[in-house]
């Protein structure tokens, strides 16, 4: 196995640089580490000898000799990523370069409490490892996303509104029984932001990732790092008010954007439209299934149902109104929107954009890009893998420094 | 004069550490620089020899020997700070430890354009230098705050709504004719935040400074640094919507907090109250002066006028409603409120607090402190001085590194 403990701090720094470069030439690595090419060469050579880095062969038949690119070696070990949503869970085994080796997703109810949910996560981790032919001892780090505010140092949830039974529960201690590898926990949307930051190789320094599903949350990248705030609750945008006389939210206030525009609000508006005779399609759906999901609204919208499209536009517009405040305050270069609701279609995104551009200042939006998250449905798992790899390397860096 | 160009990068780093410590023992300096005590001792000794640092004598007659504290020496030179508001300007000469040597404030109209306003600033700089017995050559850095968004690298205003004639004007080139020292320009509320960050010796990492005057702006400290956003417009909270059917703002949107709650809105509400027979005091003020200022409203409020107090509460409550959104998003540890309107009294602050605590999530506000800015009316000038000193040292650090 990997001789982690023999690594110098320079070697650990090189592994971190390679990880964040997602494949780079020695020259590019020297540049990113701000060291000489000869030093980078000798670090890479030593790490290849130790089996921690590998290089791809000469590429490119288009003429000219392209430099070899250096990658993390699969001989480092594997990572486990898990992404717990309010109503779903996903577990994956990843290579050190974030390639997915195995993955499983299923519905779950996070309110069932940590005992039930984590027992299932533990079984899935074991099954997926077996499927990859990997052992416990090959696991070098575990990353876990949860749908609530997390105290990052302790890895514990703090006052999570959707999952009260998890308050102060130590996920880290629970998984420590199975694995020697370190366990890191963060809020799910922070992990989506971390995944995008890695995908971008930190080329953007200040951007937001907004997740719209059962609730609404926001991951913040500030000065090239995830920003968690004074108590770990930064990005809790679901309770920003968009209508002082709007719907009452479970938090007790009126007109929170989450209560007005997230998944349950879309279902509620659709049920009203069905019962109010505004949409035969939605009414038929309600009769057949007893409920209308956001996916049903999306389907009706794609088929040209005016009421469904009105609901999608209203949701996008309210979320855009909330984002306009956030954009005025934070002036990000990009806002990436992800989560289940994004599958509702392009009309949603255009409504968000229209609302933001109308309400934000010209200067804040001059170069602002609003897009769906490029990692899409993989964002949470990749983010969990990046967390595991980054924090494991950081910890090794401290140990050996 | 100071032999800046002979400084080693370690010596420059020590000067920066002393500056941000505002007087510290050698032991504390070693700790903050993460170097050995002997290295810190030798750097301090060398810099004292060069006349760039000084130490205070033994303090404390309460028994026990207190360690000497090390400060920046006045032999380094002087700094010039200037703070341009929408309706005022202030210029000061400061010592390297931010002690005020001379200061002048007067009313001004920033809309008169850079030619008129900066000509006056230039005259005041010269007069104040003379008053201190200092020369051009002793000026080591100049810091300037302006009431609009600034591109920090170029030092130019970008699309400033209050001062269109200043768009892309180079304040730096204008002052370069008079002084060899570098000139740094930033948004006025960023400078207030920088001043508070210096006063706190960076002991708080994530906080906001909100300025309420003619407009409303916000300085953001994130990970211990001023955060300016992708285009330099971060903190532009004045156009966050607090009432979708509210007053029309000069930006074209309805219900911007600036249009509803800043100085001119307070005067407008007071005029309505006076004309509507709700306040004999405000009506008398309007008859006598032809207009009602926020100070008049404050005075009436202190004398128990119910209408005036209602206006103050409404303004505080709307600003608190905007801050609730910002606090949910950013989860700062502290919000400091400054600017002219803060002189309106304690009722204003309590209304802001009540509105934030009511609308923000419990976790975001669990340890949140909302206070008036500790530096109060000195904030802008101290911030301008800190900008000048910090950036001058940083630039020297680059030159000598």
Largest interface, with Cβ-Cβ < 8 Å?
Answer: A-B, 48 and 48 residues
From N to C, what is the helix and strand string of chain A? Answer: HHHEEEEEHEEEHEHEEEHHHHHEHHEH
The profile of the biggest β sheet of chain A is: 5 strands, mixed
Beta-strand level of the residues of chain A, as a percent range? 15-25%
CA-to-CA gap between the ends of chain A?
21 Å
CATH class of the largest domain in chain A: Alpha Beta
CATH architecture of the largest domain in chain A: 2-Layer Sandwich
> If you consult CATH, what is the topology of the largest domain in chain A?
Nucleotidyltransferase, domain 5
Radius of gyration of chain A: 23 Å
| Low-confidence region ranges of chain A | none
Number of beta strands of chain A: 14
Major sheet strand order of chain A: 5-4-3-6-9
Write a structural description:
The structure is a homodimer of 401-residue chains. The first copy, chain A, is an alpha/beta fold and 401 residues long. The first copy, chain A, folds into three domains: 4-74, Orthogonal Bundle (Arc Repressor Mutant, subunit A), CATH 1.10.10.10; 76-197 and 379-400, ATPase, nucleotide binding domain (Nucleotidyltransferase, domain 5, 2-Layer Sandwich); 200-374, Nucleotidyltransferase, domain 5, CATH 3.30.420.40. The first copy, chain A, contains 14 helices and 14 strands. Chain A has helices at residues 9-21, 26-33, 37-49, 114-132, 171-176, 188-199, 257-261, 263-275, 280-289, 294-302, 306-330, 346-359, 362-365, 379-400, and strands spanning 53-55, 70-72, 78-84, 88-94, 100-107, 139-146, 150-151, 156-157, 183-187, 207-212, 216-222, 225-226, 334-338, 369-372. In chain A, the strands form four sheets. Chain A has a five-stranded mixed β-sheet, sandwiched between helices. In chain A, helix 1 runs antiparallel to helix 14. The mean pLDDT of chain A is 91.
């Amino acid at each position: 196995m990997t001789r982690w403990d023999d690594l110098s701090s320079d070697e650990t720094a090189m592994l971190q640089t390679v990880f964040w470069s997602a494949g780079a030439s020695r020259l590019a690595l020297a540049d990113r580490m701000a060291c000489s090419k000869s030093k980078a060469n000798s670090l890479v050579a030593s790490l290849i000898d130790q089996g921690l880095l590998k290089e791809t062969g000469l590429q490119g038949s288009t003429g000219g000799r392209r430099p070899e690119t250096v990658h993390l070696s699969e001989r480092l070990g594997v990572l486990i990523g898990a992404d717990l949503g309010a109503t779903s869970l996903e577990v994956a085994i990843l290579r050190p370069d974030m390639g997915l080796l195995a993955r499983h997703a299923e519905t779950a109810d996070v309110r069932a409490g940590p005992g039930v949910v984590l027992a299932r996560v533990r079984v899935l981790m074991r099954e997926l490892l077996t499927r990859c032919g990997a052992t416990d001892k090959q696991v070098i780090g575990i990353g876990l996303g949860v749908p609530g505010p997390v105290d990052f140092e302790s890895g514990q949830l703090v006052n999570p509104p959707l999952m009260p039974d998890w308050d102060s529960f130590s996920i880290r201690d629970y998984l420590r029984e199975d694995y020697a590898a370190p366990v890191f926990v963060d809020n799910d949307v922070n992990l989506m932001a971390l995944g995008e930051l890695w995908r971008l190789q930190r080329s953007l320094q200040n951007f937001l990732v907004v997740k719209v599903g059962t609730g609404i949350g926001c991951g913040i990248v500030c000065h090239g790092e995830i920003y968690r705030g004074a108590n770990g609750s930064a990005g809790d945008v679901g309770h920003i008010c968009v209508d002082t006389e709007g719907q009452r939210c479970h938090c007790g206030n009126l007109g929170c954007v989450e209560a007005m525009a997230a998944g349950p609000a879309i279902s509620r508006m659709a049920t009203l439209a069905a019962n109010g005779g505004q949409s035969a399609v939605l009414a038929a759906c309600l009769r057949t299934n007893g409920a209308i999901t956001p996916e049903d609204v999306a389907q009706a919208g794609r088929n040209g149902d005016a009421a469904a499209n009105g609901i999608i536009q209203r949701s996008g517009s309210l979320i855009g109104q909330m984002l306009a405040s956030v954009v005025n305050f934070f002036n990000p270069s990009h806002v990436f929107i992800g989560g289940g609701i994004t599958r509702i279609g392009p009309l949603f995104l255009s409504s968000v954009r229209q609302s933001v551009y109308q309400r934000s200042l010209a200067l804040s939006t001059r170069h602002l890009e609003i897009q769906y998250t490029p990692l899409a449905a993989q964002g949470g798992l990749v983010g969990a893998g990046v967390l595991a790899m980054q924090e494991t390397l950081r910890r090794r860096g401290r140990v050996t420094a």
